[in-house]
Amino acid sequence: MFRRRTYLIGALAATMAALTLAACGSSSSTSSGGSASSSASSASAASTGSSSGATASNSVLEQAKKTVAELTQRPTTLVVPPLPSKPSAGKTVDFVVCATTTCQGFVPYLREATNAVGWKLNTVQGGFEPQQIAAAWNKVLSDKPNGVIASGGIPPELFAPQLSQLRAEGIPVVLHDQPATSNPAVTGVVLSDAANHQFGQELADLILSDANGKNVHLAMFVTPQVPVFLNEDKALTSTIGSSACQSCSVDKISFPVSAAGTTLPSQVVSYLRAHPSTNYVYFDFNDAVDGVPAALSRAGLSGQVKMVTNNIAQTEASYVRDGQLWAAAANPWPETMWQDFNVVLAKTENAPLGPVLGVQLPNWIITKQDLPNVSGPMFPLDTNYQQAFKQAWHVS
Amino acid sequence: VSEVSEMATNTTAKRLTGRFSPRRIGAIYVWIGLIVLFTILAPSTFPQYATVQQVLNEYAVTILVALGLLMPLAAGLYDLSVGAVMGMSGIGTAWFLAHVSPNPWLALVAGLVIGLSCGLLNIIVVVLMRVDSFIGTLATSSIYGAIVIAVSGSNTITKNVGGSFQQDFGLTSVAKLTAPVGLMLVGALVLAFTLEHTAFGRRVYATGFDTEVARLGGVNVGGLRAVTLLVSASFAALAGVMATASLGAGDPTVGPAYLLPAFAAAFLGATQFRAGRFNPWGTVVAGLLLGTADVGLLLLGAPEWAPSVFQGALLILAVSLTRANVREQLRKLAATIPRLRGDSHRGAGRADRASLQGG
User: Fold this and answer.
1) Does the beta-carbon distance from B54 to A314 stay under 8 Å?
2) Of B156, B176, B316, which has the smallest distance from its Cβ to A315's Cβ?
3) Which chain A residue's Cα is nearest to B175?
4) For B252-282, how does the pLDDT look when each residue is reduced to its tens digit (9 = 90+)?
5) How much is the ipTM here?
């Protein structure tokens, strides 16, 4: 009997501890009216802020509307500064690919770019585990390529010794879609903090102009484990939650990447039931939207909120087409791959890096009105992007 | 006459007390406690039909997987591949819709056939090759996961999934309850009848209690275990098809995430109604308890990790309760039949045995 009681007491204590932990924790932080603050409960998120419906300052709103008017048109103005001369053929570039679907989808576009100047592309599977990453970069060292490109937002600290070795050998290294780094071995970072901040700013402008600068109650579902996304989050929080929009509020709810398509839809339903005045929902990457429209439909919440996300692939395109996803800030993935290679070429051709790294990649906010035909995980925003790069490389 | 009447009254009272004892239906008391707690903490959002609907619609798929686990567990086997089978079936259904036919019913059949094929491979590994079920199904789940990636290319499949297929199986509802809820109830009924009212069910439990005794008693243990693995694969396949319909897309990452909640529901369910014995109604109650806790915590604004902590703690609680119950029963049995003294481990079947051995 004593042993049985010990079992029961131990098990009940574990359950109570779990419940206490759960009850004490908080999933969200709330900001409103320009003063960001953490809150023990997100229950007040939607009700915070002034009830007067004060509009965003005219200049901010006008700027937002102007930006939206420009960004809802398909971009056609990619400008690439020319290299001093045609790059010599027969060289090799290594591409360290991360393990996600999106990363794997980069390969064909980078291959097109390298083929355009007669270079050979080696792909090296980088994975996500530290030992896989180290092995991949050791493989790069043994390949002795003429340039290296890496994707996936993996912190350079994980392959710092290999980067030092590459620098000593004069091999340029280009990273993309990750925070800027001060590591001198990294030649450049494409689609870094500024670009991701831009995606967030575009969506903030879209929401502000749609709501005419007032009464925006935004729920942001974010994944802190992907650091580069924090720039989008910051842009949205600072714009919607700023003093420019006194009647607006922002609530941030974090979730693990693995919740996308599994528990996240139910979490969104629960949140919206608890915060019925929420009128906009943001997801910091597109896969997080999967299953949410159906869950909202089953819960009778369809049409209650306008949902936006960063990036768009087949699934989200179908949601946009069906009116379930309001808008997405499309990512210029093919253009990014060509730009990665452009930086490698500029370095090997001794061109000044400033103008090359300053190339403004296209931006496009996609809504139902201008939805293109999306048949894969990525697509070019500027359909003439290859021509622009080829002209700059003197191979058109 | 009055003595007889008093005895009858006492017997009835004892029976009722036993039937409603917290030892027998402890999870229901915990469930009621949670409902009261959440009603107090979230009075404007929790006590609504929308909550009932959300719990049932969102957790029916998990309970389907858990129901499928019952038969192998009752027969002394672990099937750790159910999450991967669910993923295989889900992505296979989406692939079928995208590349073969948009007919929802054909897609449903395709998903079930894929699941049964996985079940056959499990049988080959566990029953024919005699690999321990824990290791064998872990190995096959790894293979199924790889096939899912190969078939999908790690891409979400949406073509033809969001049309009539999603409408029929994921959105059409009766009283706002969708198809998986009905399947869950039908599945529980079928399993309850099979396990409690057929010779096959008794043989399943007998095999789980003591395989050698069952074999000596004339039970075809290998054949019986093969059937239980097919049953779990079928339920997992059905859950996979329903998850794809609910999602409106074939997502290659869906499946494995259902493994822990399903096991938690099966083990917690084993502590209810038929103490120490895996049973369908206990599993349904346990699944709904987990769902209620999840939804309640999220309505309260608890962090995203809270439901996982709760599920883990509940699993520990369930296994502890089961072991404690079984040990007490064994002690009583040993006291009643002296010759069993010193041999109590042979009777440690049921949920307790399955929790200790992989089969």
Assistant:
1) no
2) B156
3) A298
4) 888 888 998 899 899 888 888 776 789 999 9
5) 0.73
